[in-house]
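Anyone up for a design puzzle?
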């Protein structure tokens, strides 16, 4: 359930967007201002409101660390604000001087995308504040944008009703036309990345004027190809769905007939903005929906994966399984013929996850090709099931599949356990574990946001 804890009534026109950072809440409005609040008690900061736009402010978003805020406006600019002083750091003029309707930071804060009412897109290099590339979709208005959790691609939505996937070279990777019949209102990537075999999968939620909320899967294949498919179409709302947002752990998705909604990354709070000029702050309790929107566990909006852990293993990572846990799992999966062999070779959870066809054949002497394949399929299912066991996939290192302690962002945009990626780089000729492409640099950036999210998840579990 949700309970209303306060209502902010400082704006003089429609509230168009709201965004959380770890310690701040930002809102923007048709009254040309942005307002900044302390996320602990929702008192307005001394330098708020921020004034500098000449017309309606449509969208605002924080950089990953919360040090900067970007806002865009009908005045054809995207303004970068310091959250230390409230002063303007930069004014980015959109190509063509068309009203800017949407802006979004990449999770690594290296890029910023802005989309305008003439269908143009601008990709900015954020550290240098320089325009990097432009793109366009004719005869439409860009109203939605979200970066993937790996920061290497982004999704846009338009009033024409299409969803388009772009890479950082502004190449269109996929176009889903008529995704929403009457136009897209919002789109957002889930923070998790699901990987297995030769496929990496992302999830995207989108909503529109057709009163629908849709959940999509985007599969990226090792060949470089992308495929997007509709997983679920949620029809519970009887009015246009104007906004949607994922929680920072990806377990909840909120949508509603409100102009804006955002989850706090550090507290069980949701902010919603409305055309009545107010912002409501809601506290999440155990349960589901609040007024004017729909709140649901992400697993209920996904194709369920049957959880296979039982008994004492149910709360353990597979990597924490003992040899006895592995033996019990083999029995449950009908692989009892391997129990003695695995026990004799001291195969625990960590060893189980690292098995390959080669080690099964040469070291464990499993001669049957079919048996080797069946076992490896079951192991891949175990890795996928970690999401169903309550462990968000983005908290697991793609290399070790273990809960990360010191997550860092590599040059491929993915986050890894620091020790694991350092070892990988030193032995794998600087290739990406996720894409197999060369890493342009070995520089590793601490992912403080992810580390905080993992800490919060561990505390609550």
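Challenge accepted. My sequence:
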């Amino acid at each position: 359930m949700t309970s209303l804890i306060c209502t902010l009534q400082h704006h003089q026109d429609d509230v168009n967007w709201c965004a959380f950072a770890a310690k701040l809440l930002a809102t923007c409005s048709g009254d040309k201002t942005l307002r900044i609040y302390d996320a602990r008690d929702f008192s307005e900061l001394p330098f708020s409101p921020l004034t500098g736009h000449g017309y309606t402010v449509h969208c605002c978003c924080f950089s990953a660390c919360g040090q900067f805020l970007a806002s865009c406006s009908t005045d054809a600019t995207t303004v970068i604000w310091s959250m230390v002083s409230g002063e303007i750091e930069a004014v980015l003029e959109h190509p063509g001087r068309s009203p800017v309707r949407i802006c979004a930071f990449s999770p690594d804060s290296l890029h910023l995308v802005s989309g305008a009412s003439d269908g143009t897109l601008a990709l900015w290099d954020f550290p240098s504040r320089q325009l990097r590339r432009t793109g366009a979709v004719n005869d439409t208005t860009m109203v939605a944008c979200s970066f993937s959790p790996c920061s290497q691609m982004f999704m846009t939505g338009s009033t024409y009703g299409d969803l388009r996937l772009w890479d950082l070279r502004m190449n269109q990777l996929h176009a889903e036309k008529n995704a929403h019949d009457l136009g897209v209102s919002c789109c957002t990537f889930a923070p998790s990345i699901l990987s297995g075999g030769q496929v990496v999968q992302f999830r995207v939620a989108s909503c529109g004027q057709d009163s629908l909320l849709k959940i999509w899967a985007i599969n990226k294949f090792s060949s470089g190809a992308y495929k997007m498919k509709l997983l679920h179409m949620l029809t519970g709302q009887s009015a246009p769905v104007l906004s949607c947002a994922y929680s920072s752990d990806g377990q909840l998705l909120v949508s509603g007939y409100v102009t804006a909604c955002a989850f706090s990354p550090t507290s069980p709070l949701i902010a919603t903005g409305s055309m009545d000029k107010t912002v409501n702050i809601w506290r999440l309790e155990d349960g589901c929906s609040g007024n004017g929107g729909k709140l649901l566990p992400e697993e209920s909006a996904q194709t369920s994966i049957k959880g296979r852990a039982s008994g004492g293993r149910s709360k353990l990572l597979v990597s924490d399984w003992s040899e006895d846990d592995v033996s019990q799992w083999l029995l449950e999966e009908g692989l009892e013929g391997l129990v003695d062999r695995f026990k004799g070779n001291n195969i625990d959870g960590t060893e189980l996850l690292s098995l390959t066809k080669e080690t099964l054949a040469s070291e464990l002497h499993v001669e049957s090709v079919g048996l080797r394949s069946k076992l490896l399929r079951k192991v891949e299912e175990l890795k996928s099931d970690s999401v169903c066991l309550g462990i968000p996939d983005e908290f697991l290192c793609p290399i070790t599949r273990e809960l990360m302690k010191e997550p860092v962002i590599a040059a491929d945009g993915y986050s890894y356990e620091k020790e694991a990626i350092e070892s990988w780089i030193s032995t794998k000729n600087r290739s990406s574990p996720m894409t197999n492409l060369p890493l342009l640099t070995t520089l590793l950036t601490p992912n403080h946001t992810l580390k905080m999210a993992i800490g919060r998840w561990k505390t609550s579990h």
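A detail worth pointing out: The two ends are 19 Å apart (CA to CA).
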